[in-house]
Amino acid sequence: MPLEDPKAMDFPSLAAFTEAYYSGAFRRLVKKLLVDGWLCEEPLPYLRFLQLVLRPRWSLAWRPHAPEFAAMRDGLMRVLEQAQAPLLLHPPQEEPGGGEDTIHISWHTLGRRPRTWHYKAAYLPHRLHFERDGFSGSSELCRLPLKDITRVPAPLAGAHHAALLRDYAAAGLSKHAQNPQAPPPRAEDFVFVPLQLPNDSVIGFKRFEADYVTGMRTAIEALAAAGLPVVVKRHPHCQDRAVERLLAGYAGHPRIEVSEASVHVLLPRCRCVVTLNSGVGFEALVYLRPVVTLGRADYGRAGVELDDPAGAAEAVCQAVAGQDTLLVRQMVFTATERFQIDTRSGRAFQRQVLRALCQHAMERPER
Questions:
Q1: How far is CA 239 from CA 134, 196, 197, 320, in A?
Q2: Phi and psi of 216, rounded to 5°?
Q3: Do the beta carbons of residue 130 and residue 118 sit within 8 Å?
Q4: Which of 7, 34, 216, 292 could connect to 315 by a Cys-Cys bridge, CB 3.0–4.6 Å?
Q5: pTM (2 d.p.)
């Protein structure tokens, strides 16, 4: 392995890192921190040093209607105060300025731009996506080399997954409110199809040409035609008439059942999840359920990615037979630890601020 490969290097001590700033090896160690910051047990001293020598300011647009804005603002302010870093809070319609010396944090946006990071609510409660490219099919995770996911040590991925499952499932938490009173489905060992909002921006990442409802109808009916029991759940906030007509057409169907039960009831009982790129697909990975995605999804490589909805039954068989539970745990770890923030954790905010500072250093001209 080349000596310059950051993954082949030992994680630098703070003393080695600060000394490198004056010795010429600084950029190489910054790249190591950027790649492996998730291994850093004490990020604060490193980010303090980077903030001191780079002196960027930070900007965050007000988004009071978005609940995740307050979580980002409060967590970011705590870390930046510890680093004595200036934060500009500004109206969303106002350009913050600052040029090459400002790191911008942008809500619910897409596209890689210098010194810009995107954030939005993640798939699980108390978590935010935080990355350079966006979310869902636009995520950095979609393009991350598979070897960077599989290099997560199995014991670390396993322990993290077990803790996440306890935290999430035991408490019955989900991103959207669930109906705990809804009866469980009649079917057993079914394929679970969680529907999405047809007008959601992530629908644009679909792999098929038909409109969303037509494509999902094809998948659902292909599953039923193959003799598989199917349970379909409407998105909790959906009021789309085309979806309403779709579900009404399944009344009395011998193999297709429409359910309002909680995902914490449906996921443990299903054999597989078929979705475009719903957050329920990620929740299914937490439950170690096989997943078939019909659209680009940041977690898609942990399951089967399918272009043609008519092939859903074959894809389910492939997903069930070929599920790699170690890869699933490594994917869940990578997604939640490298590209998300647990808003209850000060260290999680510190690691992402450190990551942004390292990227800022890499984008600056070499000294």
A1: 26, 11, 8, 32
A2: -70, -35
A3: yes
A4: 292
A5: 0.94
DSSP notation for 146-180: HHHHHTS-HHHHHHHHHHHHHHHHTTT--SS---T
Contact 109, 134 (CB under 8 A): yes
Strand 272-275 relative to strand 256-258, pairing:
unpaired
Q: Of 266, 290, 283, 245, whose CA–CA distance to 187 is shortest? A: 266
Q: Per-residue pLDDT tens, the chain, 367 aa: give them.
A: 344 577 777 889 999 999 999 887 899 999 999 999 998 999 999 999 999 999 999 999 999 999 999 999 999 999 999 999 999 999 998 888 778 899 999 999 999 999 999 999 999 999 999 999 999 999 999 999 999 999 999 999 999 999 999 888 877 777 777 888 899 999 999 999 999 999 999 999 999 999 999 999 999 999 999 999 999 999 999 999 999 999 999 999 999 999 999 999 999 999 999 999 999 999 999 999 999 999 999 999 999 999 999 999 999 999 999 999 999 999 999 999 999 999 999 999 999 999 999 999 999 876 5
Query: How far is Cα 259 from Cα 280, in angstroms, rounded to an integer?
Result: 15
* 3-state class (DSSP) for residue 56: coil
